[in-house]
Amino acid sequence: MGQPSELRKVRIDELHVNPDLTPKEDPTLTHLMQDAFEGRVPLFYAEVPLALCVPSDPDYRPDRHPAIEAAIRLAMENWQKQKPVSLLVYQRGVWFVVSDDYPALFAYLRGLPEYVPCWVLGKPDSPVVKNVQGPIPIEDARRILTGG
Q1: pTM of the entire predicted model
Q2: Which has the closest alpha carbon to 134: 27, 58, 42?
Q3: What local confidence, expressed as pLDDT, does residue 1 receive?
Q4: Angle between helical axes of 102-111 and 66-80 (0-180°, round to 10)
Q5: Inter-residue contact 132 to 87 (CB < 8 Å)
Q6: HEC string of 50-100?
Q7: Mean per-residue pLDDT for 14-22?
Q8: Which of residues 137 and 64 earns the better pLDDT score?
Q9: Alpha-carbon span 25 to 99, nearest angstrom
Q10: DSSP notation for 4-43
Q11: What is the mean predicted confidence (pLDDT) over 30-40?
């Protein structure tokens, strides 16, 4: 895939989502993020066993697209340099659902650490989760949720 040779304006109706680049929408994540942003759902930090982190869209394969594959490699390099990316997750039963941080998740799946750092929407309720911290103050939670 080559680089564009020039910038051009496009009409809004010409924009579209490339299904190869995006997972299916997760309305639960959207709802929980909004509630956390507004202070109704607390945000926690925790180290979660990788074996319990599951994708919300199990059919989504970001590693099959060159641009996202590059992001996966970058996430893996950062993890190896002791700069891991914290996954944004929510708990569903025993599982911790990953809806948004697929490059980091795929990097962890390649390296197979026992535990991964996570921002958890709602208080984690699992005896195998460790180093639980929080709830995170609302101002910090908003910054984390917006990537700021």
Answers
A1: 0.80
A2: 42
A3: 40
A4: 60
A5: no
A6: HHHEEECCCCCCHHHCHHHHHHHHHHHHHHHCCCCCCEEEEEECCEEEECC
A7: 56
A8: 137
A9: 8
A10: PSS-----GGG----TTTSPPP-HHHHHHHHHHHTTSS-E
A11: 95
